[in-house]
Amino acid sequence: MAPLHFTILIIFSFVIVVSSSSFTPPRHPFDPLTETELKLVRTIINKSYPVGPNHKFTFQYVGLNEPDKSLVLSWYSSPNHTIKPPPRQAFVIARDNGKTREIVLDFSSRAIVSDKIHVGNGYPMLSNDEQEASTELVVKFKPFIDSIAKRGLNVSEIVFTTSTIGWYGETKAETERVIRLMPFYLDGTVNMYLRPIEGMTIIVNLDEMKVSEFKDRSTVTMPKANGTEYRISKLNPPFGPTLHNAVLLQPDGPGFKVDGHIVRWANWEFHISFDVRAGIVISLASLFDTDVNKYRQVLYKGHLSEMFIPYMDPTDDWYFITYLDCGDFGCGQCAVSLQPYTDCPAGAVFMDGIFAGQDGTPAKIPKVMCIFEKYAGDIMWRHTEAEIPNLEITEVRPDVSLVARIVTTVGNYDYIVDYEFKPSGSIKMGVGLTGVLEVKPVEYIHTSEIKLGEDIHGTIVADNTVGVNHDHFVTFRLDLDIDGTENSFVRNELVTTRSPKSVNTPRKTYWTTKPKTAKIEAEARVKLGLKAEELVVVNPNRKTKHGNEVGYRLLHGSAAGPLLAQDDFPQIRAAFTNYNVWITPYNRSEVWAGGLYADRSQGDDTLAVWSQRNRKIEKKDIVMWYTVGFHHVPSQEDYPTMPTLSGGFELRPTNFFERNPVLKTKPVKVTTARKGFKNKSMEVQEQDNRDGRPKSFLFFMFIFLFGLAAFFLCLSAEFQKAKGKDLKWDGESCYLPENRAFGLGIAALVCVSVAQIVGNVVICRGFLKTDKTGTTLVNFSVAVTLISVGASMNREQIYGKGWLNRECYLVKDGVFAASGFLSVTTMAAILGAFAFKVKPSLQVLKLKIRV
Ligand SMILES: [Cu+2]
Question: Residues of the signal sequence (predicted)?
C-alpha cells in the first residue's frame, strides 16, 4: 500500500474510533446519567425547543427515567444479565417560558419520546443557579439597600438564604413561582444563620427574575457575632474533651468490592446511584443465602422521598417556613463533598455525583457518597455457657456492617443519611441531624424577661437568640420485593389474653400474636406507638421448611407524628406524615411523597391522596413508606452548632432464613493501631469516574494510532531509503537523488512528535497524577534524532555539496527500523503511564451556599 494511502487510512480509522466511542451506554439500567448523557440531553433539547435569549428555558430536574420494572427484573434474573436491558431514558422537568414541561428522552434513538405541559399545581425543584441569581438581584435592589442603610448596616456584610413560601389557600392564579429571601449579617462571624435580619419581606419572582414584593416593617435586635464561631482554628482554649485518635484497622484492606455502581460485600449485593432529588438510591439489594446457594431479593429500590420541616412560629417572618426539602431544593442537589477520615472513615470508597445545571450543562459534586465498613465495637451475637459442668464456652462475633452515606446540607441543617447493611440481613436507615439552628432575634437574654403569657416559640439559646421549635419528618420510599414482587403486609398485633379456665395456672394473663394481613391501603396506615404490633412484609408464596412465611419486619425508631391540625395548610401539603407507615401498590409515578411538584403544592398529589384510592395490597407488588420524625425543642447545647441527633429504623429478616444466617461467620480478627503503623486501607479510595472512560479511551487511541503510524512509516522508509546503487559520481563530486524515504521520514517525525506532545503536555499535565515522563523523553529524543538525520540523508545530495563536507551519506541498514521501534516504545511508555492512573475528567463546579 502506498505510504500516503496508509497514512490516510490511519487517520480515517482514528476518526471512526473517535466518533464511535463518543457515546458508550452504561452497563446497569439503574446507573445514574453520565456526563456524556447529560450533554446529549442538553444538545437534543436545545435543538428541539426555541431556546435562546428571547425564550427562557431552564432545566429544573434531569435524571434517569424510571425503567419499566418488569423489564429490569427480566434483565436482572437472566443468566449473567445477558438479555437486553430496558431502554435507557432521561426524564427532564424544565421551565419553558413560564410553563412546566415534562420531557422523556430516549438515548438509543436520540429522540424525545414524550413531551407534555404540567397543568396541575406546584412547581419543580429550584435550581442552584436561579437561587444565586435572585440573591444577586436583591443585593442591588434600591429599596433594600436603603433599608439596610436605615438600620446602620453594611450591604457588603449581608448574605441571603432562599426560602420557598409554601401555600396558604391562594388560588392557582395567585400562586406564582416566587421565593422569599432572608437576609443575614456576617460582620464578625461566618455563622450567618445566627444573625438574622428580621422585619423584611423580600419576594422574588423566579420566572421573571425580579423583586415582586418588598416590605420593611420594623427593626429588631440582631444577635451579636460573639460566641457564634465553630471553626477549631478560631476558637480559644481551653479545648476538650480530649479524644484519642480512632481508626478502623484493616490490614487486608476493605472487604467490599465496587464494580461500577454495584457493591458486593459479605452476603450483600446492591446497586448504588445518585439522584439530584433523592440523593442516594439503593436498588436491587439481594442477600446471598448459603442454604440455597443463591442471591435472594430484598429491596428493589429504596431512597429518600421527601422531608418536611415546619417551624412553629406563626408570625410574619416565620409562618411560611415549612420546607419540603427534597422537592423544593433537591436532597441530592444540596449534598456536599464528603471529607475523608472525618465524614467517612479510613478505607471508604467515594463516588461523585453528576447532575445538570440550569442550562443543562453537567456539574459535579466530587465525593458525594461514600461506602465504608463500620466496626463500632458492637456484638453481632454471643453466648457464654457456664451451666455445663467442667466446661465453659464463650462464642462471640463482633458486628461489622457496610454503610453507604450521603450528607445533605440544606442551608443551615446538615442531614446525614446512612444506608447500613448487616450480614445478619438487616438494613438500617439512619438519619442524623446536625449543623446550625434556625434562630429568631429577641430582646431577651434571660428567661425571666419573657412576659407572662408570651410565647417566644422556642428556647433562649444565647443572648437575644431564640432557637425556634420545629419538626423534621424524613420520609423513605422502600419498594421491598421479598423473594419476588408478590408480597403482603401483615400487622401482627400482640394482644393481652386471659388464661383460659381450662388451664390450671396461677397466671391470669399472657400476650399472644394476632396476625392480620392488610387487604387494602386503609388497613396499612400505621401511627406507631398506639398499640403493640409487629409490622412485617411477607411473601405469602414462600415458606420456610417449618411453614412460616418468609418476610422482613420493620423495627421502627422513636414514633413522632404531626402536631399541626389536619386543616392547616402546611399539613395538607405534607399529609404524607399523617401516618408513620403506609403501604401502597407499586405505581411507577408514585415516587415523591409530597408530590412531583412540591414547591407551592396544594396537597393534591401526596401519598395521602394516592392512599385514598384504597387499592388492593394483598399479594401485590407493594411499596412501604416510612417517616422518621423528630420534634425539636432546641436547647443551649444546639448552639452555635448542634451535636448530631440521630434517628432511624431497621428492616430485619423474619423467617427469611432457616436459621441464624451469621452462625457460621468466622470471628473477625481485630487489631489495635499504634503510632507509626501504616494501614493499607488508610489510603483514600476514589471511585474512578466511569464517564471519564470514553475520554481516556480517545487519548489512548490517539497516541496508539500515531505511534503505530510512526512505526510503519519508519519501516517503509527502511525499505525505500537510498541505496549504494543510486549513488552517482562525476569524477570529483557525488550525487544522490531525492528518495521517498525523505517524505516517509518527515511523516514519521510528525506522527511521533504529535503523539509525544499530546501524551506529555495534554495528558500528563491535565489528567495524570504521575511525573514518570523522563524515560519517554529520552526515547523520544533518540528517535527524533535518528529519524531527522535519516530523513535528511534521503534528500537530494547535489554534486559538489553532498550531505556533509561534500561527501554523500547513506543511512545504514536498520536505522529507520530502530527509529520505528523507539517510536513504538515511546508510545508504549506514555500509554503505560496513562494507564497508571487517570484523574476524573469532569470539571468540578464550586457550588455556593444556599438554603
Ligand atoms: Cu432541628
Answer: 1-20
First and final C-alpha spacing in the chain: 66
Mean of pLDDT values over 490-507? 96
Strand partners, 431: 417, 647
Kindly tell me the burial class for residue 453, based on how many C-beta atoms sit within 10 Å of its own C-beta (0-12, 13-18, 19 or more).
Answer: exposed
* Backbone torsion region of residue 616, taken as left when φ is above 0, otherwise alpha when ψ lies between -120 and 50, otherwise beta: beta
Give Cα 393 to chain centroid, integer Å. Answer: 46
Q: Which among 160, 282, 83, 223 is positioned nearest to 640, based on CA atoms? A: 223
pLDDT of res. 92? 98
Which tens digit of pLDDT belongs to each residue from 328-362?
999 999 999 999 999 999 889 999 999 999 999 99
Instruction: Identify whether the C-beta of residue 475 lies closer than 8 Å to the C-beta of residue 577.
Output: yes
CA pair distance 491, 485, nearest whole angstrom: 19
3-class DSSP state of 798: coil
* β-pairing verdict for 210-216 and 200-205: antiparallel
Distance in Å, CA 217 to ligand 1 centroid: 28
CA of 280 to the centre of ligand 1 (A): 22
Q: In angstroms, rounded to a whole number, what is the distance separating the alpha carbons of residues 274 and 357?
A: 15
Q: Which helix (H) or strand (E) holds 475?
A: strand 470-480
Ligand 1 center to 331 CA (angstroms): 16
Q: Can you give the residue ranges of every domain in the chain? A: 31-117, 134-234, 256-685, 691-836
- The share of the chain scoring above pLDDT 90, in percent, equals 69
> How many C-beta neighbours within 10 Å does residue 731 have?
4
Residue 494 has what pLDDT?
A: 97
What separation in Å is there between the alpha carbon of 281 and the centre of ligand 1?
Answer: 24
pLDDT at 731 > cutoff 50: yes
What is the 241 CA–ligand 1 centroid distance (Å)?
Answer: 24
Whole-number Å distance, alpha carbon 642 to ligand 1 midpoint, is 9
Residue in 31, 313, 325, 638 annotated catalytic: 325
Distance (Å, whole) CA 165 – CA 300: 35
- Rg of the Cα atoms in the chain: 34
pLDDT of 84 > 50? The answer is yes
The rounded Å distance from CA 469 to ligand 1 centre is 8
For 688-816, list the strands marked E by DSSP: 728-729, 734-735
pLDDT (0 to 100) of residue 825: 80
> Mean pLDDT throughout 733-747?
83
Average pLDDT over residues 566-572: 98
Domain 31-117 adopts which CATH fold? Nuclear Transport Factor 2; Chain: A, (3.10.450)
444 included as an active-site residue: no
Mean pLDDT of the chain: 88
Whole-number Å distance between alpha carbons of 35 and 693 = 11
Q: Are 202 and 138 in contact (CB under 8 A)?
A: yes
Q: Ligand 1: distance of its center to the CA of 416 in Å?
A: 13
Write out the H or E segment, with its range, that includes residue 793: helix 774-793
Fold of 134-234: Nuclear Transport Factor 2; Chain: A, (3.10.450)
Distance 73 CA to ligand 1 centre (A): 40
- Phi (first) and psi of residue 424, to 5 degrees: -75, -5
Q: How far is the CA of 230 from the centre of ligand 1 (A)?
A: 18
Among residues 123, 300, 413, 579, which one is catalytic? 413
Q: Is 311 a catalytic residue?
A: no
* CATH topology match: 134-234 vs 256-685: no
pLDDT tens digits, 2-48: 444 445 444 444 444 443 344 454 579 999 999 999 999 999 999 99
pLDDT at 278 over 90: yes
User: Residues with Cβ within 5 Å of ion ligand 1?
Assistant: 632
Per DSSP (E only), the strands in 715-772 are: 728-729, 734-735
The continuous run of DSSP H or E covering 40 comes out as: helix 35-48
